[in-house]
Design brief:
Number of helices of chain A: 13
Strand order of the largest sheet of chain A: 2-1-3-4
Largest sheet of chain B: 6 strands, parallel
CATH superfamily of the largest domain in chain B: NagB/RpiA/CoA transferase-like
CATH class of the largest domain in chain A: Alpha Beta
CATH class of the largest domain in chain B: Alpha Beta
Structural class of chain B: alpha/beta
Helix content of chain B: 40-55%
Number of domains of chain B: 3
Helix content of chain A: 40-55%
Structural class of chain A: alpha/beta
Oligomer: heterodimer
Largest interface: A-B, 74 and 75 residues
Chain lengths: ~250, ~450
Amino acid sequence: MKVALFVPCFIDAFFPDVGVATLELLERFGCDVDYPLEQTCCGQPMGNSGCEEDAAATEALFVKNFAGYDYIVAPSGSCVHHVRDHMTAVEPSAESRAVRANTYELVEFLHDVLKVDAFPWTEFPHKVGLHNSCGTLRALRTAKMSEIDEPFFSKPLSLLQKVKGIEFVMPARPDECCGFGGTFCVTEEPVSARMGYDKVRDHKQAGAEYIVSADSSCLMHQKGCSDRLGLDLKFIHIAQILNGARS
Amino acid sequence: MKRVDHVKASRAFIADEKHIQFHDKRLWVLRTLRDQAAHSIPEWEELRSLASGIKEHTLTHLADYLEEFERNATNNGVIVHWAKDAEEHNRIVHEILSSHSAKTLVKSKSMLTEECEMREYLEARGITVVETDLGERIQQLDHQRPAHIVVPAVHKLASDVARVFSKTLGTDPDNSDVHYLAEAQRDATRPLILNAEAGMTGCNFAVAETGGITVCTNEGNADLSANVPPLHIASIGIEKVIPKLEHLGVFIRMLSRSALGSPITQYTSHFRGPRKGAEMHFVLVDNGRSARLAMDDFWYSLKCIRCGACMNTCPVYRRSSGLSYGGVYSGPIGAIINPTFDLKKYSALPFASTMNGSCTNVCPVRINIHEQIYKWRQIVAEKHELPFVKKEAMKVAGKVLSEPKLYRAAIKAADTAVAKLPRAFIYNPFNAWGKQREVPDAPEQTFRDWYLKNRKAK
């Protein structure tokens, strides 16, 4: 199984440990992982701003970098959502369609493709609040959303439940968006920050030591809010816990 | 038209801790009640599909159903008018009122008459217009638009209402007891209703096969407005028509559950023809709806039954309030309807969203609201209505992110800046991120550098 690792731009720049954990985790399960060296971004910042024209070249580069792999795996729900559902600026071709269809968010790849049933190297003896990004929750559908009355399911939770010693806390509004929203976080700064404050306070009152998520962008925003408020919350990507991080 | 500045308005709203807390919690309660009500009906998701299907069918055969409605209403003794836009609607209403020498019009809530700015039009022509819905009356007395489709004054605390009523109804400004305030309003409005020469209602559903209309309220004020005066005018958006009476059963089950979490509104009133000695007029209004129906991506918004569920669930709306959207419609539905009226003025609204998608999933008629918001962003960019800074930033981002060498130089520069620059320099006034948030720490190396050292080198 030939797997390409996509490490989104802001993870490359600010959270290399998330990329490392993702790579090591995939290697643990015997994937033959390639990291195409000329990769940059999926085009989401431009696409999400309505600027299809400005997104086209970046999306074309993405297709070029990731063509020919069985799977493309990324530790970021919102980027995968963009690739799968919104990568419309690049000229459609057999190649672009294949790349878009083969791109997976890490949790769904572990859960649906590798069907992992144990992480024997893990132990995380902490109280964690799980944050499902809106992209994973309502676009990739990796967990039940509160709006719809459907049987409970949560792919990230079912993976985390295999981690030794982990304890979960439940915030009052588990599905509420944290307010990151891509460029929204700077263009709509007042609402974005307020949503972030409300989100981290909600996790804090629930007793969380850590907030864990499959999206580093939400975590970056929430950590920024929590640190400014002095809440003493810690933030960790799900790949890091599943790869055996103890703290 | 001046561009609506949602950011500025929301900043002001958020600065007032008491108001934002109340507003967010109150609407979240409505969302929670909606969940309970919807989830207690096993076939809820089926109902949503059914409601959506009925609306899409009707909208794709709109002319036929409208003519059927007109025929049947006329046979029932109703006088039916057609208005192509707001101006024509207002003129028709004014002519009806003038022909009856009506000086006072009592009316129940109608987003359509807000859309037409009918109150201002009539008042300029010497007619007193009295809103009879409590929330709408509060907003009228405070010279504000409704801030919400269903609960127009939800952004106000009881103390705000006390202030408004003390100035307009002469109540005690320090008494914000809600019963006292409601009673004062009732005492002031009842005589106006009893003496009005004309009454007006909106319309939730217009049934083609019967020619009747259905109006849903919780205060009974629509019934007073329609039944006390000898003249009843109903303003009806052309998208309100549904084919059959039996379809009401689908929509009535969903409307109030979606809006407030209650099984049904207190009053569900059906009007089919004039009382003996009275007159009934229906004004069917287009005002941009036909044009919207012709828009490939956006005609679905005409399915809207104005329940407000998308507003209640929207985390941005809850933290910025309806008035911050600067238009008749606010929240997610406002972000996709208002731009059809004036793209330039409302060009910021599609960006007042995190694209979280909750709105789409509570919508009882399955409007793909957040996907339409995404599409509107493309239209705003295509029509060159993006703010200059954003437009230029995206141009640069598109260039840098499509060239690996430029990209690598840029992220190294970012890491170096965060690592080396003094705090005061990073948290400068142009750094919107850093106003209320900390910037992430710079790592020792990028992932790519780590990879080159630890994998490629081996």
